[in-house]
Each structure stands twice: as C-alpha cells, then as structure tokens.
Amino acid sequence: MLDIKFVREHPDLVRDNIRKKFQDGKLVFIDRILELDAKWKKKKKKADDLRAERNKISEAINKLKKAGEDAGAKMKEAKKIPGKIDKVEEVSNKLYEEIKGILLKLPNMMDSSVPEGKEEGDNVELRKWGKIRNFDFEVKGHEDIVENLDLVDSVRGAKVAGSRFYYLKGDLVLLNQALQRFAMDVLIKKGFTPIQTPYMLNRDAVGGAVSLEDFEESIYKIDGEDLYLIGTSEHALAAFHKDEVIDVRKPIRYAGLSSCFRKEAGSHGKDTKGIFRVHRFEKIEQFVYCEPKDADKVFDEIIANQEEIFKLLGIPYRVVALCAGEFSGSMKKTHDLEGWFPAQGRYRELGSTSNASDYQSRKMNTKYDTGKGRALVYTLNGTAITLQRTMCCFLENFQNKDGSISIPKVLVSYMGGMRSMAPRD
What is the pTM of this model? Predict the structure, then answer.
C-alpha cells in the first residue's frame, strides 16, 4: 500500500496516478483520506500531550514525596489520565484503520516509463527474438494437437471437476516435468533458491501481496476457513518474510514452484478448448527482495532469465511494456513476455515481470537495516515459466507434418532421451 505521508504531501500526484490507471471511482478516496488523516494527527497529538502531562505530574508527585509534602491531589489527577489516553487512542485507532482500508484500495505509483493507455492495443513492444518458422503444411492449434496425440482429457476433467479442469496424459506429463526441472536448473545456476510454497494462504497473507478488492473474484476461497488457494506462488513468497528484518545487501532470490488456481472470472468464451486458460496450472515464479537502489537491475535480470529459458528452448517471443490500464494496481511497472503461436499467427502472454517497489513490503512489514535505521525492502516478481501455456506454445512451434512433436536438444536429457512425441497405438 502507499505511504500515508506520500499521499498527505502529494495528493495531486496520487490523483493523477489514479486517472492514468482508469480508476476514477477511487478519486473520492483522496479527500476522505486527507480528512481522516487530519483528524488522526489531532488525536495523536492529544494522546502525546496527555502522556507529557502524565510525566509532568509524575515528576511533581516525586518532588512532593521527597519534600515530605502531601501528593494525594496530584495522585488523583494522575489516575484520571490513563483513561483519557485510552479514549483518545480508541478514536485514533478507528481513524487509522479507516485510513489503512483506503490506502489498501489505492494503486501503486507507476514508473515514469509506463506507457499511457487502457487496453492491450496500447502496450508497447520493446523487442523480439527468434525466427518464426515457415511451415510447409497446415499447422494445427494446440487444442487439436493435444486431442490428436491423446495428451489431455478435458471431458473427464469436466465430468469430475467442471469446465476448464483436465487430466494431463502420457508424454505431456513428462514434458511438464521436464520443463519444470529445466527452468529450475537455469534459475539455480543464477543463484535462486528453489521453494515449493503452500497452496493456501490466509486472508492477511494474500492481502499483503495483492489488492483483494481487485483479485478476490479471481481466486478460490476455502469455505468455512480463513484460507484462499493461491493464484501464484508470488503471493506466498511475498508473505515469506512477513514482519521480519532481513539482510538484502545482496538481493534474496527465490524460485517458487507451485500449482496455481484461478477462477478465470470474466474470461467466459475465451480459450475454452485445450489447456491455455484453465483453473489450475503449474508455474515457477521468480521473487526477489532487494534494496531500492538494486530494483531496476533486478527487474532487468528477472525478465532476462525468462528470455534465456525461451531462447534455449528455441521459441520465438517478444517483450512488451504494459500500458497503465493493463497491469495490477500493486505494481510500479510490468513487462510481459509473449510467445509466438503459429496456428493463431500472433504472440500471446506467457509471463510477466513486475516491480512492486515497497507496496507489498509496507503491508507485510518487511524491512532491512540501512545502517542508519530500518527501511522497507523492495519486492520484484517475474514468471520463469508457466507450464500449461508454455506447453501450448511448445506444441504449436515444434509440430511436424506427420503429427509428431520434436523435442529441442536442450530438453532431450530431461525427457529421458526422448526426441519426439508421437501418436501411440
């Protein structure tokens, strides 16, 4: 969440940021939070004044006692002050909670490099890599490939769990595991610590990573429990050092492996076949804690890691800077990596890299020692690989005329020596 001091001192900048995010409905919060903040400061001053008064009376009582004089009147006066402080702090705490509730609804301040715009078409392409393959046959979409090779059973998945659930089968299970270990090995060599996170988090932990107001419709709530299924391991990793003071003289790098669960609210009618847009998928997420001065370098490092994975696999991609209206309110900026889908003739999102600045750590109370005191760390996150979407892209790019799928050289050892996936009798 934003710092109340920043909102207090720069309300017009906060308003402008809200407008650029196309969240004009939140503009009313600024006047309200400034009003509450003024009241809170008055109550805080009153409580401080009462404490100062209590200290003076205590000194007076001590002097009277040392002089052998009666301190009864002063002692009676002193006994009334704690009750007065309690009443003032009760009001102060209520004001603070309302302030905090509003701060949680305000979007992070965006980086100056973020393109203006509201929709996908306003995103800005930064770079491309890879040669798009010219096929000498009619290419199939990943939806048809998994059906032809009997690699996914969505019918039985829907029967036992509902639409957008599925069973992975045969060689696709092996490919899933191979891609996971391959991507994890790339990150381990770069100093990332592998972590397999909990699949459920309590409300406080999830709310520290994202705005529940924006995200709650997309994630699953466990009935009767203060638990949510994670939408990404980012949520669990953001909460990993909650209420801690950590050493970030060198950035702390985690590679979080998890299943992820999404309702895919608002996406009805999109990608209903195959496994591109599903309710459960695996992902390896890069998550880094660092000092503010290292954030830009870490951001570039994270997305470069994902690019390296796709270069080694040989999958063409492009990187785009998301416009103001396209990325999460918790983030300062976000770049997407989009893989090339030959059957669709376009690039589609396979992962995101984001800088959350101190927006998450302020909610999580995660700090570091500056040498002169304590300050909030910066957190950054980025996809290393999203397995189901990447497999869709993989299948389309490496399909052959006979219906088989070639395995890139870099993955052969991870696939137990298998060089192609072909229909089984």
Answer: 0.91
